[in-house]
Structure to design on (547 residues):
């Protein structure tokens, strides 16, 4: 059910900083997308339905890379082309509505000149005659050098890569429903591509009003064709425009809660449009209203180059919400709430398009303190964009062919994630560590986590509570590492001590159940020495020696 109160709250929280977070950096082509080597049909772009209704430059700066534009004649006897929404034979108001030529020459081309990695697509719903459109295009200085022409790539098996399109300089793709074909401008030819030959779309509305939701995904043109219908390009995959908006009554608050919400975007792609097309197909264009709100930018980046999808239910249960997605391909250090991720919500994780050697760590502590629950997930193989590998819970350590999960328990982590850090799995022992626990056999609460990556001496107190530790869990350690725990401060031996020696490399967690007795476990051994008084629960200092 549409929750107006929640949606209004979400809209109220949308600040300038939240919008700024969607801006593309110089090394990106759109927010979160920094891989330029894939064919154009393997990218997803946030697309503005009725893109002329808001300031186009603001939308471009936000990261919008597709615009749906309705072209109509102007009123008051004008012979020019304007942008507005009206009946098929209606006219735009020349005193209020934007001029198409001005939009090209003063907005789109200046943006492309100032953003050399950007590619922009215009999808035209055209109600002007060919001659009028020709004159409008002729008045755009330099347009002939910017419009994408597929001709140089005819006969190939796929679209050019984004990198090739960028190098060519032809970074404005124009699709149209009428008057497609060649236009001769200043001695050069530009191509407007027929939409029904080059792309596929679902029907354009989710419902006649925001009180009706038709999530099915029927084709706008009766059937979904997989290949381009233009001669010489039959081996190219069609571009897929997924329309995700209501015909009437939508607001920014509604879009934040429903149409542009990650849960509903993902369900539409994974369930409804997949059923309609016979397989899951990532949209190339997410066509939405009110693109200043919702999750479309993060989702577009994740569809393009992978993402970490957090779920509110265990096992990434699709009946619950997808709380957020963090795009792959960059390192992140997020204190929640942030980047669309709510605090204390996530209970499981779904991975798509994640490369081998990636590490993601989730923490109960907003400061990423290791005195509370945390889990470290290392990816062991390349996970494809169309795969779905699920971490059912953050509260279990295990290893599979896909990944390795190490969970450090304090009092529970599922539903309490407050910090997320993504990066790279170390290939050495720089992340070697041991966790000390209040109870024997690594039970009860965490006292602290101590690095075993280098030599160290310290007294307990502060991050490691004094007179608490009774056992340890070695998460990772290099053979030859040794550490001591002492009953007295300053590593004095008069109140007893225990030395733990790592005999072979430890890469899976092992438990030192007590400091009170000597024991050889094969991969490690413990030697108890000094005074016979109790050491468990009385540890006051520690020494570490790294080989």
């Amino acid at each position: 059910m549409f929750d107006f109160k929640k949606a209004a709250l979400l809209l109220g929280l949308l600040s300038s900083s939240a919008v700024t977070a969607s801006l593309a950096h110089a090394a990106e082509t759109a927010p979160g997308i920094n891989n330029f080597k894939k064919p154009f049909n393997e990218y997803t772009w946030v697309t503005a339905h009725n893109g002329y209704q808001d300031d186009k430059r603001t939308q471009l700066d936000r990261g919008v890379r597709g615009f749906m534009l309705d072209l109509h004649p102007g009123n008051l006897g004008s012979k020019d082309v304007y942008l507005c929404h009206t009946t098929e034979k209606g006219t735009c108001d020349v005193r209020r509505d934007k001029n198409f030529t001005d939009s090209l020459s003063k907005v789109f081309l200046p943006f492309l000149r100032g953003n050399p990695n950007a590619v922009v697509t215009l999808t035209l719903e055209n109600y002007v005659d060919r001659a009028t459109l020709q004159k409008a295009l002729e008045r755009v200085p330099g347009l002939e050098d910017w419009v994408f022409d597929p001709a140089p790539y005819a006969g190939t098996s796929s679209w050019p890569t984004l990198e090739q399109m960028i190098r060519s300089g032809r970074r404005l793709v124009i699709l149209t429903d009428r008057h497609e074909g060649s236009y001769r401008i200043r001695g050069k030819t530009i191509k407007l591509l027929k939409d029904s030959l080059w792309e596929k779309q679902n029907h354009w509305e989710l419902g006649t009003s925001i009180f009706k939701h038709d999530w099915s995904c029927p084709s706008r043109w009766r059937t979904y064709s997989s290949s381009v219908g233009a001669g010489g390009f039959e081996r190219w995959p069609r571009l897929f425009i997924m329309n995700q908006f209501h015909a009437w009554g939508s607001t920014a608050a509604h879009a934040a809660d429903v149409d542009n919400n990650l849960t509903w975007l993902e369900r539409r792609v994974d369930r409804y449009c997949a059923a309609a097309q016979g397989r899951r197909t990532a949209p190339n264009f997410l066509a939405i209203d009110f693109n200043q709100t919702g999750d479309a930018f993060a989702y577009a980046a994740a569809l393009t180059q992978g993402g970490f999808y957090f779920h509110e239910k265990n096992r990434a249960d699709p009946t619950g919400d997808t709380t957020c997605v963090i795009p792959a391909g960059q390192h992140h250090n997020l204190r929640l709430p942030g980047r669309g991720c709510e605090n204390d919500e996530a209970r499981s994780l779904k991975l798509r398009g994640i490369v081998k050697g990636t590490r993601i760590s989730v923490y109960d502590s907003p400061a990423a303190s290791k005195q509370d629950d945390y889990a470290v997930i290392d990816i062991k193989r390349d996970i494809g964009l169309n795969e779905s590998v699920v971490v059912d819970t953050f509260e279990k350590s295990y290893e599979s062919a896909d990944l390795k999960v190490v969970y450090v328990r304090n009092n529970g982590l599922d539903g309490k994630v407050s910090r997320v850090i993504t990066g790279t799995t170390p290939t050495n022992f720089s992340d070697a560590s041991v966790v000390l626990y209040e109870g024997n056999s690594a039970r009860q609460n965490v006292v602290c986590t101590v690095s075993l990556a280098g030599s160290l001496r310290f007294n307990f107190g502060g991050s490691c509570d004094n007179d608490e530790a009774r056992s340890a869990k070695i998460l990772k350690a290099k053979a030859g590492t040794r550490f001591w725990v002492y009953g007295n401060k300053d590593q004095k031996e008069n109140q007893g001590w225990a030395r733990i020696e790592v005999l072979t490399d430890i890469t899976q967690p092992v438990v030192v159940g007590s400091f009170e007795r000597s024991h050889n476990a094969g991969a490690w051994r413990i030697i108890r020495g000094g005074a016979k008084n109790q050491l468990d629960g009385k540890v006051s200092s520690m020494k570490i020696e790294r080989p």
Q: What stands out?
A: The first helix runs from residue 4 to 13. Confidence is low (pLDDT under 50) at residues 1-21.
